[in-house]
Task: structure prediction
Amino acid sequence: MADARQYFDLPSPFAMKRGGTLRGAHLSYETWGTLSAARDNAVLILTGLSPSAHAARNDIDDTPGWWEDIVGPGKALDTNRWFVICVNSLGSCKGSTGPASSNPETGELYRLDFPELTLEDIGNSAFELARGLGIERLAALVGCSMGGMAALGYLIHHPGAARAHVSVSTAPQARPFAIAIRSLQREAIRLDRNWNEGCYDEQHYPEIGISLARKLGVITYRSAIEWSGRFGRIRLEPEKREEEPFGAEFQIESYLNAHARRFVHAFDPNCYLYLSRASDWFDISEYAEGNVRAALSRIKLQRALVIGVETDILFPLEQQQEIAEGLRAGGASVDFVGLDSPQGHDAFLVDTERFGAAIGAFMASL
Amino acid sequence: MADARQYFDLPSPFAMKRGGTLRGAHLSYETWGTLSAARDNAVLILTGLSPSAHAARNDIDDTPGWWEDIVGPGKALDTNRWFVICVNSLGSCKGSTGPASSNPETGELYRLDFPELTLEDIGNSAFELARGLGIERLAALVGCSMGGMAALGYLIHHPGAARAHVSVSTAPQARPFAIAIRSLQREAIRLDRNWNEGCYDEQHYPEIGISLARKLGVITYRSAIEWSGRFGRIRLEPEKREEEPFGAEFQIESYLNAHARRFVHAFDPNCYLYLSRASDWFDISEYAEGNVRAALSRIKLQRALVIGVETDILFPLEQQQEIAEGLRAGGASVDFVGLDSPQGHDAFLVDTERFGAAIGAFMASL
Result:
């Protein structure tokens, strides 16, 4: 299957929030639908930590995307109406420049020489992409999870850059429980001796670290309720149990193993560290002397949909309520939707029926 | 400070639930108060995964115990009235026989040659201790966390062995979310190359593994709400930040580091693995063809207090409700207390004001 990714060269040098610049950096992105002559129907999606720009199948790449049930003709983000763009985050490893890319100044991989990355850098680089595509104002900026925080950064740095905003299962700032989880994930990678301060290769690769990090991620992306119904105490068939001492015996353990196996070599560990730390650093209140609500109220939008789920332990619903109230205080007309999906943080990826209905209704009302 | 531990020799051989036997095994325990002439005022405490038998200070050992605010003269477990016994679990490393003990048959440490351990073995061995102390029937059996599951095993195997039961922040069976967390903790230990299939020493010790396991434990023992209030986004003083890449920067990270440092060499990694797996295995429904409620209803008690907290993600309150309903179905008069303590699973150790009030009122009513 062909690759639908397109590439956008960022202005060079591209200045980063915490200092440092990138030269010759680019973003990968994909698009669906057609930009209108007035260039007023663009919807830009910023993703969670690990997805690529391939949100859905398109004419070039027919493999299902990570938000396949949401993006497409007649779907919630209806590509018959909207020109949908999804961008791979700056700092990621799915085609955009990041720690796993070559540093043009040295010819070597950046690794830990990549400048300190913030979610605002991800937002600013996505803004450059939209501008580069000739889009002065987005019809809607959509941000999921980490991408939802990056979207808040985008909006606060670029007033008037979007008419509407869809904020999905995200937060206005990282709180200590989420920081603790992400810190432990990073530590698992850092303590893997194959990580070697970022200098690994495929032969000496921090598989153990990234595998533990991914499993912890999966545990916090889901919910106890969902797993009780789905796995209960079902044991693996004897022939599928791991022979080694204390090896996997329950289905839930095998489920985690499968998730980790798929991820280990599909996502670069250094990129993971950069994006994870950027998430911890994000705090919209920096823009209003430590006041979350005041900072959010500086974001000027016509409309917003803020959506999340009650079973999310990583980005609790209360944080989406904060976003809704803050944006409302800024003058936007805000729809707030708290779903009771059992799937936890990942519900936006799997309970697409309910998320699709809410997002579709909001988009149709624009 | 002197050591208040006493030792009880288990019947030898001592048969384990899943097969295998222990020879020459013993339990360590401590006591407070005086056993009445009728031997009818004994209260036995089964602990969580890691505590020792030192629940509170006593005449011999004046250091504070792990349940100092609950056990003592005039406290919830009033040692002026009750003869309180706390036992270090079989399989632990705080004086009782476990994987870190010498195998009398080989003269070497058991390590992974220790027979498979279940929580029922912990319950059965504690029952032998009570019998050995001349106590035919406990006034109350108290079980916290893992010890609460062991207590259910004790009660179902030994009908009539207790008049009353205090069940604290525990569960009638391990559910997949808790199994996933514990499985990941075990994996962190197992994947530390210093673990070496259980053959480590102080020079080659799985510090990384047990440290990651402990941090994950602390994360799941507490709650997001408590940490938001306690740590927020407070950063470490610059001089306290870790210099290495991606090192600790927030107070919450330093808090986790401190917890891990205290634990690493204080608890034996093999014992941790055995007790952790035993927790996953526990399922009271085994005693009634897979029906939790029916199994619990086979436990005959006069009175029970079942207590837990709403913010507990490891042993959710719903599981304490299951215990309360099951024991009630068995004919006991059951008090159920669901507290809104913000401290999560660990609330029974730290919100001793509310736990003490509930436990004290229940004990006074006996």
Observations:
- The radius of gyration of chain B is 20 Å.
